[in-house]
Structure formats: structure tokens, C-alpha cells
Design goal:
Blueprint: E1 9-14, E2 20-26, H1 41-52, E3 61-67, E4 70-78, E5 82-87, E6 93-98, H2 103-110
Antiparallel strand pairs: 1-2, 3-4, 4-5, 5-6
Length: 111
């Protein structure tokens, strides 16, 4: 249904006649899943903002997101300093993490 799968990508190379000759990437078969969200993009953004106590999120992208051994329909909400994943069926917060690298982590990465 045109909904991207978070963390998965396939690249297909074609010859001059547009015939595929090479495919690389990572993919998985996904069981039947509803691709119709029960909450809106705006509701997902509001949930992410409430979760962080800030108004950093302004948009969300609908994806299939891996949770344990399955995929769920979810909204990815990114801001400059955090990532929130909101379940598109029930509005629960799947993930809330800071994307800020601290000085100690940056020092470790540069060593």
C-alpha cells in the first residue's frame, strides 16, 4: 500500500533496457496487517508532544515499525532532539528516545 517499512531498504539496479539485474538490501515478509490508521497524523503529533512535555513535533510519517517479532502500523515523529514512535491503531507510545549525543558519548565516538 505504499507505506514504507522502517529500517528496511531494497535497491534494484537495471540495465540500459530497464531490465533488473541486481537486487540488494534487507527485507522481510510481513503478515497481514491493517494499513488504515485509527488515529490521525495530528493526533500522533499531539501524543508525541504530550510525551515529551514540549511542542517540538510538527509532523509524523506513517510506517510499518518492527516491534518484537512483528510489525505494527505506526507514526514516526522526529524533532531536532528526540524520536517518538506512536502506534497508529491505539495511540500508545512505542518508543521515546533522545537523539542528542552527549559530550562524553561524542568523545567516545571520536577516539
Amino acid at each position: 500500500n505504499g507505506i514504507p517499512v522502517y529500517g528496511k531498504e531494497i535497491t534494484v539496479s537495471a540495465d540500459q533496457n530497464d531490465n533488473p539485474y541486481l537486487m540488494i538490501g534487507n527485507c522481510e515478509e510481513i503478515a497481514d496487517i491493517s494499513t488504515v490508521p485509527s488515529i490521525t497524523t495530528k493526533q500522533a503529533v499531539n501524543i508525541a508532544n504530550d510525551e515529551t512535555g514540549q511542542q517540538n513535533f510538527t509532523d509524523a510519517k506513517l510506517v510499518l515499525y518492527p516491534v518484537e517479532d512483528k510489525f505494527v502500523l505506526a507514526y514516526i515523529c522526529n524533532s531536532m532532539d528526540s524520536l517518538n514512535v506512536i502506534d497508529a491503531q491505539n495511540g500508545s507510545v512505542i518508543k521515546n528516545e533522545s537523539t542528542i549525543l552527549t559530550a562524553s558519548l561524542i568523545s567516545f565516538l571520536l577516539i
